[in-house]
Amino acid sequence: MLGKVVIVGAGLIGGSFALALKEAGAVREVVGMGRSPKAMARARELGIVDVVADSAQEAMAGADLVLLAAPVAQTGPILASLLPHLEPGTVITDAGSTKADVVAAARAVLGDRVKQFVPGHPIAGRESNGPDAALAGLYRGKKTVITPLPENSAGDVGLVAAAWRLCGAIIHTLTPEQHDAVFAAVSHLPHLLAFALVDDIARKPHADLLFQYAASGFRDFTRIAGSSPEMWRDISLANRDALLTELDAYLAQLTALRALLAAGDSAGLEAVFDNAQRARRAWGDAIEASEPPPGPESGK
Questions:
Q1: Most distant CA pair in the chain: distance in Å?
Q2: Quick one: 179-263 is in which CATH superfamily?
């Protein structure tokens, strides 16, 4: 049972964390902090948070756990605002989609007290955002990656892991560097591609006609382009080196596909498509086997 949990940014990610803990009966009080008074008032109205703090001092007093659920570029400034009020028994974690930059910011701001910061990343989301998008069941059966620091105590890492397990998440552990290399390939690059395709079509002179005939394939491929531009701007820049590596590899793949298409190489094209189909089906089967279906959504 957690006493006081502070959520910095009570939108989709932070709000779903709070709702899940409440649904599990695992928290006494949830306190919200955020940049937008309107969004925080809505989070209070929806029961995501019990109290909206007027100051960092008020929020941090007696806090057991703090979740930073804001764009990764805000990590440093947020930690700087919390540090003067950080009590010895309080653990801070985050939900950022990049980790090496977040860890660097935490070390720069917190100094010796970085031991109280346990980095994390829940692998779940939706294309919508804000408090109204929050779901108590968002993390049920989904992975959460924790990237512990050498300075972290086993107890603090365990507290963060336990909180995510109470949300229904399955805990995995990586180093920050491993995390960023993996997610550049399977998350950050797909978002970049989806944004790029929609932007390309939107800029064409006959965009209205193209969108009129776009159907389920386009919808499924580009769903994630509905995500927060600010968040994905920050993620792309924060993981720039790893993302550039993956983007270069993808550009080489596109160049190879173009050559096959230009040459009319049906066998070559089919070989690429066949390999992709088999890999996609194997991945889908593995996901279905390892992740239980989510239960009924609740908590709004």
A1: 68
A2: 6-phosphogluconate dehydrogenase C-terminal like domain (1.10.3660.10)
CATH superfamily ID and name for 2-174 = NAD(P)-binding Rossmann-like Domain (3.40.50.720)
Query: What's the pTM?
Result: 0.87
Residues 68, 78: contact at Cβ < 8 Å?
yes
pLDDT in tens, 218-265: 999 999 999 889 889 999 999 999 999 999 999 999 999 999 999 999
Question: First-to-last CA distance in the chain?
Answer: 21
pLDDT for position 292: 55
